[in-house]
Design goal:
Elements: E1 9-11, H1 16-20, E2 26-31, E3 33-34, E4 39-40, E5 43-52, E6 55-65, E7 70-75, E8 97-98, E9 102-108, H2 114-122
Antiparallel strand pairs: 1-9, 2-5, 2-9, 3-4, 5-6, 6-7, 6-8
């Protein structure tokens, strides 16, 4: 899906070192469409917590409901798990945000809360 992106956002190069510069900030990312993996190119927003081994970790994640132009909270689906403190079975990690599957990443040019970033992205006015 093509969307008009507000001038309030900057596109981030999909590269581990470049993305790492935005740790602790709200980010918007869209996955590439992949029919084989049943990926519909979903758009996510959350707080970037880590980037390692070509994988992005986020907390407070929401998924954009394109049809209704609203964010649906997913919680902490993409957080990094600590094997010494978490259930080892949880490390199957079905939900992964691999860099190779990401079509774009945006960050807000101005300091803004997660909710403000979500609002600006859905309604760029």
């Amino acid at each position: 899906m093509t969307r008009n992106i507000s001038s309030s956002f900057s596109e981030v190069k999909i590269d581990t070192d470049t993305i790492r510069k935005h740790l602790g900030m709200p980010i918007i990312l869209q996955l590439s469409e992949d029919i084989e993996q049943e990926n519909e190119g979903e758009t996510f927003c959350g707080i970037l917590t880590d980037v390692e081994n070509n994988q992005i970790y986020m907390e407070k994640t929401s998924c954009l409901d394109e049809e209704n132009s609203r964010w649906i909270e997913w919680g902490d689906n993409f957080i990094r798990l600590d094997p010494s403190r978490e259930d080892p079975k949880a490390f199957a990690e079905d939900a992964k945000l691999q860099l190779e599957n990401i079509q774009f990443i945006y960050v807000c040019k101005e300091k803004a809360s997660l909710e403000q970033v979500q609002d600006m992205f859905v309604d760029p006015r």
